[in-house]
Design goal:
Elements (H helix, E strand, L loop, with lengths): L2 H10 L7 H12 L3 E10 L2 E9 L1 H5 L1 H5 L20 E5 L8 H13 L5 E9 L2 E8 L10 H40 L3 E6 L4 E4 L1 H9 L3 E4 L2 E4 L2 H11 L6 E4 L8 E8 L11 E7 L9 H8 L3 H11 L4 H8 L3 H15 L4 H14 L1
Antiparallel strand pairs: 1-2, 1-5, 3-4, 4-5, 6-7, 6-12, 8-9, 10-11, 11-12
Helix pairs in contact: 1-2, 9-10, 10-12, 10-13, 11-12
Length: 364
C-alpha cells in the first residue's frame, strides 16, 4: 500500500470503524515499528484519560500488558501538561519539552516492561481538553528518535489526520444527536415513520411498528410500506409526493381499523443533494388506544397504583364495570378508586380525568 492509498484508507475509517486495525497494521509496516495505536484523550484534572484506544493486530493481542503501564497514569505521557499546546503537533519521547530526565528514564523502563521501544506521535486538538493522537512505538531495545524519513511521513500525514479527526468528531456528534432524537420519538405514543418517495422505510418508532403490524391494510415488506389495495397504495404515494394534500385515510376491514396518515414534513425534491428525499409521516387509527404507563400517571397526579391502573384502562376505552371484572374486584371498589382519582386530579367527571391525563402526557 503506497502513501496515497494509506491516506485514503485513513479517511475510510470515518465511515467504517472496523477498518482501523487494517489501517494501523499498514501504518506500522510503513514506518517499520512494533506498534501503532489511535487514541482519543480527554483531560481529567491533571491527567489525560484514553477514552478510545484503537490498535493494530499485535497491540490488540498485547492490550492487557500495554494497559498495565503504557496506557495508565503511570506513563508521563498521560499528564495534562503533555497535551498539544497548539492545534496539532508532531512529538516524540526524545523531543517533548514537558518531559524531565526522570520522565524519560521512567518511559524507557516502563515501555520496555510492556515490550515496546521509544515512541513518537502526531496529535490534534479537537475541543478544549480533548485531542486525538496516533502513537507509534519502536521495537524493544530500539531507543531511536524519529528519523528524517519518519518526520517527512508524519508531516505528510498530519493534515489528513487533522481532517479525519474533525470528521470523526462531527460524525460522533451527529450520531449522539440522532440517538437522543430517536430515543425521544420512541418514547412517544405518536406513530412516526420516515420514508422516501417510494415508501422505503428509513426509520420508524415503536408505536408505528406496532400499528403497522396490527392493521390488515398495511404492512412492511422488504423495507417498504405496502398497502393491500392499489387504491390505498396510490393514495398514500400521492400524499407522500404532495400531490393530494397532506392527509389521507386508508380503510381496513372494520371501521375501527381505518388508518389516518398525515405528512408532518416533506423534503423538497432536489437531485443536487446527497441522500434520499424523505417524508416524516404520522399514523393513527381510532381503534388503537394510546400507550400509557400507570407508574407515570401515578407520579404525575399523585395517585396510588390501583387508582393509576384504573385510570389508564379508562383512557384505553374500558368502562368501570369492565375494569372491575377484568381485575376481579367489586365494581363498588373500582368506583371508590375512580372517585379518589377524580379528587386528586382536580376534576369532577370521568371524561375530564381521561382528557386531562391524555393532554398532560401529550405535552410531556
Amino acid at each position: 500500500m503506497d502513501d496515497n492509498d494509506l491516506i485514503a484508507a485513513l479517511y475510510g475509517t470515518v465511515s467504517e470503524d472496523t477498518r482501523w486495525t487494517e489501517v494501523l497494521d499498514a501504518l506500522k509496516s510503513r514506518l517499520g515499528v512494533a506498534s501503532a495505536v489511535f487514541q482519543r484523550l480527554v483531560a481529567d484534572r491533571d491527567d489525560l484519560i484514553p477514552v478510545i484506544s484503537l490498535r493494530d493486530t499485535w497491540s490488540t493481542q498485547e492490550a492487557t500488558r500495554h494497559d498495565a503501564w503504557a496506557n495508565s497514569p503511570l506513563n508521563p505521557r498521560f499528564r495534562r501538561d503533555t497535551e498539544p499546546r497548539g492545534q496539532d503537533e508532531i512529538e516524540s519521547d526524545h523531543r517533548c519539552l514537558a518531559f524531565s530526565a526522570t520522565d524519560r528514564e521512567n518511559l524507557k523502563q516502563g515501555l520496555a516492561a510492556c515490550g515496546l521501544g521509544a515512541g513518537f506521535w502526531l496529535g490534534c486538538r479537537t475541543a478544549p481538553g480533548e485531542h486525538t493522537t496516533m502513537i507509534f512505538h519502536r521495537y524493544p531495545g530500539d531507543g531511536r528518535d524519529m528519523t528524517d524519513a519518519d518526520l517527512h511521513f508524519m508531516n505528510l500525514l498530519l493534515p489528513h489526520f487533522r481532517q479525519m479527526s474533525r470528521l470523526l468528531t462531527d460524525v460522533a456528534g451527529i450520531k449522539a444527536r440522532l440517538s437522543v432524537a430517536e430515543a425521544f420519538m420512541d418514547s412517544t405514543s405518536l406513530a412516526l415513520v420516515a420514508c422516501d418517495m417510494d415508501l422505503g422505510v428509513h426509520w420508524m418508532n415503536a408505536a408505528a411498528e406496532s400499528l403497522v403490524n396490527g392493521l390488515p391494510q398495511v404492512a412492511q415488506l422488504n423495507g417498504r410500506l405496502r398497502f393491500r389495495s392499489n387504491d390505498g397504495m396510490s393514495m398514500v404515494r400521492g400524499v407522500i409526493h404532495g400531490q393530494r394534500g397532506d392527509t389521507c385515510r386508508v380503510e381496513g376491514d372494520q371501521p375501527s381499523e381505518v388508518l389516518h396518515l398525515r405528512v408532518l414534513r416533506r423534503d423538497a425534491a432536489d437531485k443536487r443533494r446527497w441522500g434520499r428525499n424523505l417524508a416524516l409521516i404520522a399514523l393513527c387509527s381510532p381503534g388503537t388506544a394510546p400507550r400509557i404507563d400507570a407508574t407515570e400517571v401515578a407520579h404525575l397526579f399523585g395517585l396510588t397504583m390501583a387508582e393509576a391502573t384504573l385510570t389508564t384502562h379508562l383512557v384505553g376505552g374500558m368502562t368501570v364495570k369492565e375494569f372491575a371484572a377484568h381485575r376481579g374486584i367489586a365494581e363498588g371498589t373500582a368506583r371508590m378508586q375512580l372517585k379518589s382519582a377524580l379528587t386528586k386530579a382536580g376534576v369532577g367527571r370521568q371524561a375530564d380525568l381521561v382528557r386531562q391525563v391524555c393532554q398532560s402526557l401529550a405535552r410531556l
